[in-house]
Amino acid sequence: DPTAISFNTEHIHFKDVVYFTMITQTTVGFGDISPVSDLARFFSYTLGVLGQMYVGIVIAIIIGKFLQSSSNSQ
Fold first, then answer.
1. Residue 26: partners with Cβ closer than 8 Å, 6 or more residues away
2. Which of 3, 19, 44, 51 is buried most, with the most CB atoms less than 10 Å from its CB?
3. SS3 for 6-44, per residue?
4. Environment class of 38 (CB within 10 Å of its CB; exposed 0-12, middle 13-18, buried 19+)
5. Residues in the chain with pLDDT < 70?
6. What does the CA dihedral 25, 30, 34, 39 come to, rounded to 10 degrees?
7. Which residues, at least 6 apart from 33, have a Cβ–Cβ distance to it below 8 Å?
8. Model confidence pLDDT, tens digit, residues 51-65
């Protein structure tokens, strides 16, 4: 739905959608692109939560590998 997200321009390009996705996942949220419809807002906060979970999972994997390698060397 072209009216689900408020952009500063009239035409929505793929680079704008990628920008919005990365800004949402990193929780920076500059505010230049805003979800307007309820469905767009749902996907935005879901994307933000998934972005935070992704960071947590990656950090947990890295720490798990580090702890596993340090316990094997002892």
1. 51
2. 44
3. ECCCCCCCHHHHHHHHHHHHCCCCCCCCEECCHHHHHHH
4. exposed
5. 1-2, 8-9, 73-74
6. 20
7. 5, 6, 7, 8, 16, 19, 20, 23
8. 889 889 999 999 999
